[in-house]
Amino acid sequence: MPKHPCVYILASKRNGTLYVGVTGDIAIRVWMHKQGKGSAFTRKYGVDKLVWCEFHEDFGFAIAREKQLKNWRRLWKLNLIEERNPDRADLYETIQMWAPLD
User: What residues of the chain score a pLDDT lower than 70?
Assistant: First the structure.
């Protein structure tokens, strides 16, 4: 199954803790976070709500974007989320509808 490089932001709750990550399979990765198997950080702080993601053609670009976002100020990340997801709804249930098709 082909990989779809994706940068994503998870939140614990509205205005809660944020986590920026990169993956080749957003559905499986978010599911892992929701099961407490994503990372020690997300497990410790209850960060499992997908609030933003961005697909890339190449893992190199996705990793560079992840690093860029990790260096951003918190307010900039919140503004990025707000642009696309003003209610900060959990997008996990909808990702299959807009994920790139093979």
Answer: 1-2, 96-102
CA distances from 83 to 32, 52, 61, 71, 76 (A): 26, 10, 21, 19, 11
Model-level pTM? Answer: 0.90
The CATH topology of domain 6-98 is GIY-YIG endonuclease (3.40.1440)
* Residue 53 contacts residue 12 (beta carbons within 8 Å): no
Task: Specify the pLDDT at position 97.
Answer: 60
Structure-block tokens of residue 24: 């080749």
Sign of the Cα torsion 39, 78, 12, 57 reads negative
